[in-house]
Queue: 2 jobs
Job 1
Amino acid sequence: MKQRPKFDHPIDELLQQRWSSRAFADKMLTEEQVMTLFEAARWAASCNNEQPWRFIWSLKDGSEKYNKLFECLAPGNQEWAKTAPLLMLTLVETLFANGKTNKWAKHDMGLAIGNLTTQASTMGLYVHNMAGFSASKARELFTIPETVEPLTMVTVGYLGDPSVLSEFNQGREAQIQERKSLTELFL
Ligand SMILES: Cc1cc2nc3c(=O)[nH]c(=O)nc-3n(C[C@H](O)[C@H](O)[C@H](O)COP(=O)(O)O)c2cc1C
């Protein structure tokens, strides 16, 4: 198990154990597990209860949909994300139902992914968010409404053996997580 950082104040065990793994075990998730993850996302808070989060997802099942999602990833992320059993594109509806811009949509997706991540931790699953993907490729390969913006891609799976990774990524995998101190965060 990866070395855990030193926490300055007590936080829940589930939050302590989370980190962004790049090595996933060759173990498939069930559709029911996937639905549980999205159910957790669904119950996040959102501005005006607009629920602007949208998802395009696939299990690693060799389907056209999976291949298209995988194609959207930056090569550096493809190198390790190929081991993950679940791959998703997160997207936000940028307009409120009344047509005005929802400037909190990305905030709310963050809350939804936070819920999904904590739910994943309870299930022994690890989540890795990625900005390294092509939004224009996603628009080319999927039917995405104009007002919906691709935001991130995310992998989920069980922890795997880091030896499946390149030397570079094995090094990243072994790094201890670092954070700014709390005093740096308080303005
Ligand atoms: C929005 C977002 C985008 C990220 N993009 C990438 C990415 O493209 N590739 C990658 O390997 N990690 C990516 N990460 C993972 C971060 O590097 C990681 O969360 C950070 O270094 C802290 O490490 P930890 O999550 O293990 O605590 C991203 C994380 C977030 C939240």
Job 2
Amino acid sequence: MKSKIKKITYSSEETIQAACDFAKTLKAGDVLLLEGDLGAGKTTFVKGLAKGLKAKVKDVVSPTFVLMNIYQGQMPIYHFDLYRLEKPEEIASLNVDEYLQSDGIAVIEWPKRLGADMPRDCYWIEFKHISETEREINISVMQ
Ligand SMILES: Nc1ncnc2c1ncn2[C@@H]1O[C@H](COP(=O)(O)OP(=O)(O)O)[C@@H](O)[C@H]1O
Ligand SMILES: [Mg+2]
């Protein structure tokens, strides 16, 4: 781990703003793994990434049923949600690899579903539910 940033937010708007600021530091090929319970704020954070990269924030929804959404901004955002995937063959059929180190950024909710295929060169972003409106966000750079 190279570095770690810790941030507490007190509303979804603050989480969006934090992600918006963070998005401006990203470059094509970056991979973001979002870890945390349901409702912890992962998808809200992706809205902020979209805002920061000038994509349509309204398009950002949890891709739970389609598994991946693409948002077009200054560069594409490939947004995966692996929550419903359990079988290794379902995960393999998604070809997540094709979207890593690509022309855009890959953002993956429930990355542990990838098992041994979980990318190592990534931002590891953990969300903790502190209270109804309070979240702790830890961003680590992994290599
Ligand atoms: N500080 C906060 N940061 C992010 N979301 C918050 C915060 N406070 C309340 N919320 C609410 O918590 C929920 C988070 O949902 P979501 O982002 O979909 O979580 P996840 O993708 O982790 O399941 C939303 O309803 C959001 O409005
Ligand atoms: Mg989500």
